[in-house]
Target: DoxX family protein
Amino acid sequence: MEKLKKIIVLVLKITIAIILVQTLRFKFTAHPDSVYIFTQVGMEPFGRVGIGILELVASILILIPRTSWMGIVLTLGIIGGAIMMHLTILGIEVNGDGGSLFYLAVLTEVLAFTVFVMEREKYPYINKYLMAA
Model:
């Protein structure tokens, strides 16, 4: 059972990293949709590039066993922020995408949270604070 858990976690981490990396070309090439989104939330261009760099860092950290917890926590923060921007400023559908960016963000957040829960014993201080609550 432990081996199956490790395989599932690895597949989830690779999936998260792929999702994060595949969105980078839109941020780093100033794709019109990406520019539009970050303009709407008042973060163009520095937020677009900054978030792109953070997503790149998170995707790398996730794939390194010693630092995967940092990548997961960083992903939860970044994608949580993206979801909040969709819910408060952008809306579910952006530029006629049918909500695909929003749903991809939700999927990524769910996958990252799943890894977080499945590996919670590996995160520094998490068990200490969860047990104290």
